[in-house]
Amino acid sequence: MRIAFSANNPWPFTNQANFTKPSSQCTTMTNKEILNRLYQVILPYKGKLIISMLTMVVFSALTSAQAWILKPVIDDIFVNKDSSVLALLPFAIILIFLFKAIAYYVYTFLLQFVGQSIIRDMRTRLFTHINTQPLSFFHEYPTGNLISRIISDVSQIQNAVSNALVSSLRDFFQMIFLLALVFYLNWKLAMFAFIILPIAIFPIVTLGRRFRKLSTRTQEETANVSDRLYENITGNRIVKAFCREDYEDKRFGFQIDRLFSVTIKDARLRSLQHPIMEFIGGLAIALIIWLGGKEVIAGSATPGTFFSFLGALIAAYEPVKALSKINPIIQRGLASANRVFTLMDIEPKITDKEGAISLPPFTRDIVFQDICFSYDNEDQVIHNLNLTVPRGEALAIVGSSGGGKTTLTNLIPRFLDIDSGSIAIDGKDIRDVTLASLRQQIAIVTQQTILFNDTVYNNIVYGDLEASAEDVRNAASAAFALDFVEKLPKGFDTIIGEGGARLSGGERQRISIARAILKNAPILILDEATSALDTESEREVQKALENLMKNKTTFVIAHRLSTIVNCDRIIVVKGGRIVEEGTHEELLARKGEYELLYNMQFK
Ligand SMILES: Nc1ncnc2c1ncn2[C@@H]1O[C@H](COP(=O)(O)OP(=O)(O)OP(=O)(O)O)[C@@H](O)[C@H]1O
Ligand SMILES: [Mg+2]
């Protein structure tokens, strides 16, 4: 049966809105490259793997012994009725099963151990790797996609390594031992069985290629589903506000149907593979019974030899079948490994350069000289900008939306790197110093408050992990957060929810200000929230900011007059250029851009 399903138009609602298919971000590595990389990952666990493989060989040998023992059981006990053999054989069987059980335990446990270790190592490495990436990386890779790679793809790799790659060795050994037995018992019959073998291997090889392609697509679509989930869950308030539940349902449905469609294709192939293999096995058994039966009837073989032979052959077919099942798992693992290694190979664009020095404590000035910047080397966002900010100055950056204010401040801690020109702190180009020493001296309060789902205390102490409980309390107090924190059910130990969901907007801002106060860095970047607060919390936030800015060199992207008048100097940024600069009064007197802004925004 073919399920009528088209991935190109799986959803009849697409005429309402064009749900776009996200692009896949994957280069293709050769199998050899991937296996090489996997080998590196497995290397630390080589010892355990070798022990596991050795016990596997023992296990396989004992499986053959099991088949072989049928011969004395039938010939000596049932046909010849030899009671001395009857006294011995049950013990031999018990021993075989006992050692097989021990071998099984050792090799499966060690394999699991290695597999789980690989998962742990790869996830840790990916996490660290992602953390070294600059801001632009996160603009390019959607959150859900990254999560999917770290969770789902890494699991697929582990699955391939411990369940497939290594189990296939066990199956291989088993096959070798059993076939040796088969040849030992009756080589002529064994030759016939061998004629069948290539027929059995053929479907394994041909289906393998298809599995690989489908797996890559399955993992891509899984990542897309993960993206949709992430956005829908984090953006749920907007979904509700715009009554877009239906729209989101359809969009998710569209994505999940794409995943369904590739998964079904994969399932169809796999469902097909098993019966094909079974049928080929049946052919072999029929042929062997016919030929072997003739030999037993003619008296040239004992019934014991025949049953032992048949037992060994059937047992040998199990690993062949298992090898065919393993193939899709390996293909899936390889596809996932490709996605994971591609991600790991993305060199962080912003790193410490060789011989980078530690930036000494900030004393003099920050100088922007002729800086240009563009996202993705496309449209230039900052054009030949020059600016000198002496230590201790509070600089207000104002301008209409999209002018490049946030971009400009993101250049100082090197969240983004300039294309040309230079930014120097005390005469040292920020690209010549280590990122850690640079960022150590900068505290940031962002436009959207970013808090973690943790206690109030842990969110504040994030600013300085060495700070004492008293320092944290003082910081909260300076940020005008102490009052409301103490009123929370568990005070500083209250968990604030994802992104601080259990706090009001103003409270969230004050917690993030407390965090910056605790860091006590000489340079401060403040991207004032554009969302308006009520006058009461507005005033509290304002006072918190004043405390934060004390004795600091501050870049503040200001949206409020109260912030601007507290500053020493104002620059007006428009289209990536400084179009005006001066004090509030000077700029108003010029009757230019600033006056326009003032009349629109601040008045
Ligand atoms: N990740 C990005 N990729 C490409 N272009 C971007 C990216 N981020 C911002 N831009 C563009 O850069 C320009 C400056 O954006 P920026 O965020 O610096 O503006 P802003 O002055 O901070 O505006 P606002 O006052 O609204 O916060 C805008 O035209 C914007 O479209
Ligand atoms: Mg901005």
UniProtKB/TrEMBL annotation:
<keyword id="KW-0445">Lipid transport</keyword>
<dbReference type="InterPro" id="IPR036640">
    <property type="entry name" value="ABC1_TM_sf"/>
</dbReference>
<dbReference type="InterPro" id="IPR003439">
    <property type="entry name" value="ABC_transporter-like_ATP-bd"/>
</dbReference>
<keyword id="KW-0547">Nucleotide-binding</keyword>
<dbReference type="InterPro" id="IPR017871">
    <property type="entry name" value="ABC_transporter-like_CS"/>
</dbReference>
<feature type="transmembrane region" description="Helical">
    <location>
        <begin position="190"/>
        <end position="208"/>
    </location>
</feature>
<keyword id="KW-0812">Transmembrane</keyword>
<feature type="domain" description="ABC transmembrane type-1">
    <location>
        <begin position="50"/>
        <end position="332"/>
    </location>
</feature>
<dbReference type="GO" id="GO:0015421">
    <property type="term" value="F:ABC-type oligopeptide transporter activity"/>
</dbReference>
<protein>
    <submittedName>
        <fullName>ATP-binding cassette, subfamily B, MsbA</fullName>
    </submittedName>
</protein>
<keyword id="KW-1003">Cell membrane</keyword>
<feature type="transmembrane region" description="Helical">
    <location>
        <begin position="89"/>
        <end position="115"/>
    </location>
</feature>
<feature type="transmembrane region" description="Helical">
    <location>
        <begin position="164"/>
        <end position="184"/>
    </location>
</feature>
<keyword id="KW-1278">Translocase</keyword>
<dbReference type="GO" id="GO:0016887">
    <property type="term" value="F:ATP hydrolysis activity"/>
</dbReference>
<dbReference type="GO" id="GO:0034040">
    <property type="term" value="F:ATPase-coupled lipid transmembrane transporter activity"/>
</dbReference>
<keyword id="KW-0472">Membrane</keyword>
<keyword id="KW-1133">Transmembrane helix</keyword>
<keyword id="KW-0813">Transport</keyword>
<dbReference type="InterPro" id="IPR011527">
    <property type="entry name" value="ABC1_TM_dom"/>
</dbReference>
<dbReference type="InterPro" id="IPR027417">
    <property type="entry name" value="P-loop_NTPase"/>
</dbReference>
<dbReference type="InterPro" id="IPR039421">
    <property type="entry name" value="Type_1_exporter"/>
</dbReference>
<keyword id="KW-0067">ATP-binding</keyword>
<dbReference type="Pfam" id="PF00664">
    <property type="entry name" value="ABC_membrane"/>
</dbReference>
<dbReference type="GO" id="GO:0005886">
    <property type="term" value="C:plasma membrane"/>
</dbReference>
<feature type="transmembrane region" description="Helical">
    <location>
        <begin position="49"/>
        <end position="69"/>
    </location>
</feature>
<feature type="domain" description="ABC transporter">
    <location>
        <begin position="366"/>
        <end position="600"/>
    </location>
</feature>
<dbReference type="Pfam" id="PF00005">
    <property type="entry name" value="ABC_tran"/>
</dbReference>
<dbReference type="GO" id="GO:0005524">
    <property type="term" value="F:ATP binding"/>
</dbReference>
<dbReference type="InterPro" id="IPR011917">
    <property type="entry name" value="ABC_transpr_lipidA"/>
</dbReference>
<feature type="transmembrane region" description="Helical">
    <location>
        <begin position="275"/>
        <end position="291"/>
    </location>
</feature>
<dbReference type="InterPro" id="IPR003593">
    <property type="entry name" value="AAA+_ATPase"/>
</dbReference>
